[in-house]
Amino acid sequence: MEKVLQWFRCRPKWRVTVLVAGSLVFLVGLMLLPLMYLFAVSLAERARYGTIRWHFSLQNYLQAFHPLYLEIYWRSFWIALTTTMLCAVLGYVVAYTIALRVSGGWKSVLLMLVVIPFWTSYLIRTYAWMLIFRAQGVLNNALLWLGVIHQPLQLLYTTSAVFVGLVYAQLPFMILPLYAVLQKLDPALLEASQDLGASRWKTFFRVTLPLSSQGLAAGSALVFISAASAFITPDLLGGARSMMVGNVIEDQFAVARNQPFGSAIAFLLTFVVLGILLASLRSTQRGARELL
Amino acid sequence: MRTGRSSPGLSLASALVYLFLYAPIAVLVVFSFNQSRLTARWRGFTLLWYTTLWRDHRIFHSLMNSLVVATATTLICVVLGTMASLAWTGVAGKWRSAGEAVVYLPLIIPEIVIAVALVIFFSFIHLELGLTSLILAHVAFCISYVIIVTGARLAATDRSHVEAAMDLGANEWRAFFRVTLPLAAPAILSGALLVFTASFDDYLISSFVAGVGSTTLPLQIYSMLKRGITPEINAVSAAILAATIPLVYIAQRLERGSLSLRRAMASLAGIFAFMAIPVLVRTWPSSPNVPQLNLYVWSDYLSPRLIHGFEQAYHCHINYDYYDSNEALLAKLQAGNVAYDVVTPSDYMVQIMIHQGLLARLDKSKLPNVWAHADPRFLHLPFDPHNDYSVPYAWGTTGLAYRADLVKGKVDSWSVMFNPRYAGHILLLDDMREVFAMALKELGYSLNSTNPAQIREARDLLLREKPLVKGYNSSNFQQDLAAGDAWIVQAYNGNMTFVMHENPNIRYVIPKEGCTISVDCACIPRNAPHKKLALEFINWFYRPRVAALFINDCGFNTPNLLAPRYVRPWLLRNTAVFPNPASLTRCQFMHSLGRAMLLYDRYWTEIKAD
After folding, report:
1. pLDDT (tens digit per residue) in B270-307
2. CATH second-level architecture of B396-518+592-609?
3. Chain A nearest CA to B380, separation (Å)
């Protein structure tokens, strides 16, 4: 044992290689290679019954820019953007309250209440909304009972249901990074601003918001990316016209059996996500590191 | 109150957000104790759904799979990830940035992309889908959590402790176990918790890479959600929540450093036991050494009594999965790395699968019951003229179902599907061939049309209809109809049987323009591992009493001439299961479309995406 260790100590490169090897097998062999294979498939053609024909073609990428799909990307984009903005507003309220308005025991209780949904099964949280939105669901029953409506509203299988589901699922991803930066905010700065006569709103827009922009950017990137590539939420809560890009990809692999085309869309989505991430990283390099 | 002035507005807004976060969870838990099955009105307290849950074998088997996968994933990730992060602290320069890029890859790439990349890669390297492929996939997307969390902790620790230990004569091994490991332990434990939950919760990646008998809990819950809402799902959700909350509590306290490592480990072991012991109790009796039979059939094509009956008679264990469309079945079999023994493709798909070489020839001498009892109308059909590869399993029609109390007037035509009065109340099947069949029939064409002009006309009609359509659903449309979430649905006949019995306002018709008649066939895939048992299953299924059990439990008809003798009387009177023979003359079998399939596929994607 001692000799083996001695041998490795004299050869730091070997030592690193051996220690890293196991993880590398998974990260390269089962992550990088499959992604490269996916890229190769995206340049191939589909045979009649859905198998892959290895014939180089850019056809899949051209097809991916058909107006029909542009509409889906656009839909995914604005659904993700709206979700991000709603999360930003709701998330800010909560993060601000936890970070600056309460202290001690309350702080940790409120924080934990944010974290619990974050650890709870995504499926279950989506299912809860199915219960609420059904024609004979909780919300319709309550509204009928209150006399607000006389006929059940069609809520499930609509794009609005997708919005609610996405905001609900992604909210903790916004609250946590915002809380992380607001927590570090020096309250003396806020007091100084107010002592100097700035109104509460002015203090917020001139001091608090700029100082928390890193958390806001990090949270927005996280929410936007997960919302734009959502699959489960539109699949369970959405209807005929709320298909998002994640559903198109899944459909191409699981049902339509056009793997090359599905791969091409998957790659386009990946590029967009990487672009957004790099852009937001550049603005919040430090913030992101602290987060992780 | 650090900033002095309090603001009731802000507090109220926060309270509302918390209400938004917790109201759905509260509803979920409260209704897990509700007596009513369908409505969300309170009908009194019951523990019925928890006892149903306790008796549900599928849930416990899937929970067992989830625990096995999550535990194995966590162990592998912790060991390999910690090793990597140890080495990592010493690396710098271009290797470091390359490594970082690879480590962050699983966190950056959208999960759906990872899922499809893994599934085609596993097919490419011929890795059989099952628990192993699940664990490999989970490690691949989870290991980064450990590397990052532990790496951050190690980078923050002072190397001088280790150096001091070594100066005092400890070798590197000893220094690691006595100094580095205890310092990094809280981070490793948080990483492990993160990995365990990520693996335990994962649906998307698992749904692609799971194979025979490796259904995990999220997959099971998803299929329950898709197939209809029962309070049993509330019960299982509430149980999972109950296990999650202490987990979060421990993770939070670990992060703040207010919990000793030993107590954290003890509590985690307690939670794990809380989850594992009931699972072991419930899954213990099934011994893994009995022969296995893997079925992959249409949803609702099996019942607990059927499964139990065969398991008892042949001393074997049945694993089964469901699919919702012929195309989904084809996609799974084409990947080539799933080991199913019996599948039930429909007529036209049998033809494609024979053509693709996916099916095994049947040893006809082993199927005496089939030749004795099968209705000759369903034998020797053009897609497999000599029944070399397939024997009929069930047959049915794809017609129109509606709520007579909500839809006014006589409904006997597909044209009701195109009536703007019912906008937002129409559901179509999520099935390319059936949706096109409806449109082609409405236009007066054959539902097997390969004429590009006719197919395009059908597409245009469907695109025009799109604003009226609420959704595409092949799995629980009957419940949407029963619950009033839809008024008119395109329906497989058998799915309507029981809801029609419960609610006389639900009707099923074969439209006057005609529709599909289909026969779903029992076939054995070429790479099936248990062909002998598979033949025995098919032959057993043709015993008249078993066939009747299928009709009684599943609500679909089966081409067994003697079965009706043992079928419940009300079912014999049900026009969805036993239609008037005259109406069947309007129905048409589907055929494989050959090259025109490409056109259908393209238009179908367009319609779905519009």
Report:
1. 888 877 888 888 776 655 678 999 999 998 899 989 99
2. 3-Layer(aba) Sandwich (3.40)
3. 24
